[in-house]
Each structure stands twice: as C-alpha cells, then as structure tokens.
Amino acid sequence: MLCRLLLLASLAPRGRAPAAAVSALAVRLAHRSAINPTARSLGRYCRLRMSDSEQYDVVVVGGGAAGVFGAIAAARAGASVLCLEGGSQPLRKVRISGGGRCNVMHDAQTWQASRDAVAQRYPRGADQLLGSLASRFSPEETQAWFEAEGVQLKVEADGRAFPTTDNSATIIDALLGAAERAGVVLRTRAKVSDLAHDSGAAPPRFGLKYASASGGETAAVRCSAVLLSTGSSAHGLAAGLGHRIVPLIPSLFSFRFVALRLGLCSAGVSVPDVELSLELKAGGGPSPSLSSRGPLLVTHRGVSGPAALKLSAFAAVELAEAGYAGALKLNLLPALSGAGVVGALEAFTVDGRRKLVRNANPFGLPGRLWEAVACGGGDEAEATGAKRWGELRRAEVEALSSRLTATPLPFSGKDSNKDEFVTCGGVDWRDVDATQMQSRLVPGLGPVLIHRRLFFAGEVLDVDGVTGGHNFQSCWTTGHVAGSGAAEHAAACSVAPEAVAPEAGAAADTFRLRGGWRAAACAAASGGQHAALAATLTPTLALTLGLPLPLPLPLPLPLPLPPPLTLTRL
Fold first, then answer.
1. Where is the RsdA/BaiN/AoA(So)-like insert domain (predicted)?
2. H-run or E-run covering 48
3. Is residue 394 helix, strand or coil?
4. Which of 165, 450, 457, 467 is the most exposed place for a label (fewest CB within 10 A)?
5. Is 101 buried (19+), middle (13-18) or exposed (0-12) by CB count in 10 A?
6. Residue 136 DSSP label
7. φ/ψ (deg, to 5) at 361
8. Which residues pair with 511 in a beta bridge?
C-alpha cells in the first residue's frame, strides 16, 4: 500500500501537497482509463482503496453536469470535495448532447432575466431559478467561465451555443481539467446506497455508503455537507431524509402518429415556422389551451423539432394523464391570418392558374409536405390536388385554407428526442430554499428550520427546460450556487471556534470561525433578553439547526449550553 501511495505522489506536479496530488490524479486517471491500461489500474485503486475513516468537507453525489460543476465550485471555495458517480463515466449526458456537439448553453447576449422570459424557457422551476439566473450565476457568467477554461463558444441562428470544435469532448475536458486543478476527487462506479445524518456527532455530520459495481466493495465516507445531483437515482436518498418527491414523467419528446401517411410522404422535411396546438383524447381531462410555435421536423413516425418538443414539455403532465393519446392541430402558416391565407390562395388562382394544385403553392412550402397536407387525407383533397389552380371554386379555396391552418394529426405514443431523455419531477421545491439550493428540513423535525448542509442541483430538482441549452444552464447555475453554499456551510460547521488575534477595534473576547463567522462573547453585565438568549447557543448548534444569522430573537427553544456566544458574519 505504501509503495502505491508513493507512486501516486511521485506522479504529481511539483509543489502540490501529496493529498492534493492523489486527488487531482484520481480525476485524471478516471478520465484517461479507457485508453491507458496502467492508468485504469491506478484509477481503480484510487476509487476503491480507501480508509474507513475517510472524511471530506463536501461529498457530491452524481458526476453529471450539475454535480461536476458544483464540485468545482465547492473546491474553489476551499472545501475538500469527493464526487461519486455511479456509472462508468462522468458527464455522460454532456457527451451525447446535441448529437455529440454539446449544446452547452443558450445565447447569453439575448438572455433576459425577467419572469416572463424565464417562464418561457422553463415549464417547471422558473420562479425558483429566476433569482439565481439573474444574480447568482447568469448565462453571461457561464460563458465567461467556459472561456476562462479555454473553450471558445459559437452561437447559431436559433440561439444555441456550441463549442467551436463542434465536439462535446471539448466541454468534458474543460470540466474535468477544472476539477483536477481544484483538487476534486472523482470516483466512478461508486453508487451511493445509503445517506444518513448523524446528529449525535460533534459537529453533526453526514455518513454515506457506496458500493463498487465492478469490485463489489462497500465503502463509507463522512462529510460536513452533501450535494445531491444525480437525477432520479438520488430521489430515494432525499426521500429517506423526509423530502417530498414530485413523480417523474417524461418531457421533451416527439409525437408518434396514428396514421403514418404524413411521415411516409414527408419524412425528413422541415419547416422553419409552424404552430402546434394540443387536443387531448376524451378521458384525459379537459384539453389545456397549449400551443407552441417554432421549427418543425417531420419524421418517419411523427413530428419532432423545437415546436413539438416545447409543446411536449409544457404539456408533460396533461399528456401523461391522457396516456399520450390525442391530436395535434397543425398550422403551417402562423404568420398569416385566416383571411390572409385565403387571399393568397385566391391570388394564386390567377397567377398560377395553369399549374396543378399539387405541384405548386404560393407559400414556398416543401413540395412533399404541401402535397401531403393540402392535397391528401381524403377524396375531396385529392380531387382538389388534381385540378389546376384556375379551376378552383371559392369553397375549394376555403377548404384548402382550413387544411393548411388546422390540419388534425392524431397521435398515440411518443419517442425520445434523439438519444436524450429529459424528465420533469424531482425534489419538491417546497422543501428547498431556492436562494441557496439547500434543504429546508431538519432530519426528524420535518419542515421547521432550514438544514444548511444538504444541497440539491440539476435534474434531482423539479426543474426542466426546453431545448436550446436551457437544461444545461439550470445545471450550471444550480450547481454553482449549491456547490458554493455547501463549501461555505461545511466550513462554518466543521470546526470549533479558533482563537485569533482580535481585529482592530474588536473586543478582546472575539473569536473567528473558519468560513467567515465570528463568535463574540456576551457581556453578562449587559443583561436583557439578548444576552440571556444568546448564551443558550454554541456556534456549532446554531449552524446545525440552521438558524439564520444574526440570530432571531426571541429564540424558540431554551438551550442552556455554554459558552455564551453570539454569531455575526465577518
């Protein structure tokens, strides 16, 4: 064992402490183990061989986008951080996002931190994200972060931002490189099986157990703060500590048609601007007044593209209740009024009077799509398509207009968007303080006080966005806020007060707490309620209970514990 540790230390850059060297090396080896047999062996050793008494300031459960980003934020804030990923590789969804190009965020220059703008991007969680997106970690800060890590981004016409390399490996390398330099310890194949809060410890700590899928070993770790960021797999851990979970249902999916004529005739055809409205089947409850506008892609099974995906996200709950059966109403010309469509068709009966209806249209619609929608689906429509434009009667023009602006498309079923799978649901926001992405619960007491050392980020929360980089943006923002908060509160709670020289002008009986908290002895002679109540709390107990600082008065509980301290922020 000693030989292996010496080997690890010898491979570290000069000037780095042995512990930090092993931590950084663990990240690098885990990332390179797929191509280097020696690194694979050492990486497995770093992941599995550890002391039963291993302790960290912060443990991050989940090595996805939010988890890794949160781990980096916590480590840069000075915390020792362990990140546990249950799969064989971290950042799996980052790798496949955008067809392997990684739509890392949306255009920061067009971002508006208003309630309406955020609500249009996030069907669920918009109100809770608004403050953090506006002031804690905005899209502008996200772009600056990646550029500082050497990633150049480009913005496409629809606002989606990609690395200029068009390769998700660029983003992965930047994240893992930042984690390595910050000293994050990243372990893969480390599925957490148990999370418990030890309120009897001094100070109280979390205990986690995780198993290795490859070696079957079980390991334990203790920490001052935990960040859950694993999506649905962490819901059991959160529920075990008393948090309510909103049931998971799919979001961001394409619609599968009952009749495949449109798909067979027009598969692969895209339209830059359509409007889709939703009509649910009987038994699925009242049809919501939901519609979506944007580009549409016709597939061999149905429809996809931003218009369909956005509609599926905002109507996710209603569609699940209806069993994913109903009908879409397709408007191919949303920029025109009904009268405008009729007028354009009538004008074309003159300008294009010699052309067959099925072969020409005045709107520039793709030929296959035009023929399938305007001239198909019934004997009357097919008869219209066989005529010349100059032969159409007024009633036929109006019927053609109706088909173009209100084509019914019955659907039954759904398909995932490429290889990506997004859900809505998760830890209920009622149990989360959205300003810090931290739990509101004290284990055993229910929703009474804020528990300041359990944090959430990413898909574990009940938040989901539409396509275009918004889901990743919520990961970066919640990860940064939660990771920074976890480091701060872990530092404040993990050590006892440490005597230091008093600041200029401060009382001689002033102490400093690690993490930026100050404990000042109360003068008994001052008397009054403030001194008496402040004397009931120790710094550790106050922070463990999650009491806001400065302490609220009067306090709800008499806790006669020495020393007589009040707490203020440095």
1. 266-422
2. helix 37-48
3. helix
4. 165
5. middle
6. I
7. -145, 155
8. 519
Rg (CA), the chain: 29
- State mean pLDDT over 289-298: 89
N-term to C-term CA, the chain = 44
Q: How far apart are CA 314 and CA 422, in angstroms?
A: 13
Give the 3-state secondary structure of residue 184.
Answer: coil
Pairing of strands 160-163, 153-155: antiparallel
pLDDT in tens, 1-44: 334 333 333 333 333 333 333 333 343 333 333 323 223 322 32
Residue 45: both structure tokens together: 């050793």
Nearest to 42 by CA among 52, 31, 51, 53: 31
pLDDT tens digit sequence for 251-266 = 999 999 987 666 556 7
Q: Among residues 175, 202, 180, 192, which one has the least CA distance to residue 227?
A: 192
Place of tokens 């249902």: 249
Judged against a pLDDT cut of 50, whether residue 286 lies above it is answered with no
Q: Two tokens at 346? A: 């009538």
Instruction: Write the CATH number of the domain with boundaries 55-248+421-490.
Output: 3.50.50.60
Closest to 488 (Cα-Cα) out of 536, 533, 435? 435
Determine phi and psi for 417, rounding to 5 degrees: -80, 105
pLDDT value at 357 more than 50? yes
Q: Round to whole Å and give the CA distance between 186 and 89.
A: 10
How far is 206 from 208, CA to CA, in rounded Å? 7
Q: Within 232-378, where are the H helices?
A: 235-240, 261-266, 306-314, 316-321, 338-351, 367-374
Q: 121-142, pLDDT tens digit by residue?
A: 999 999 999 989 888 999 999 9
Task: Determine the pLDDT at residue 342.
Answer: 97
Domain boundaries, the chain: 1-49, 55-248+421-490, 253-416, 510-569
The total number of residues written for the chain in this structure: 570
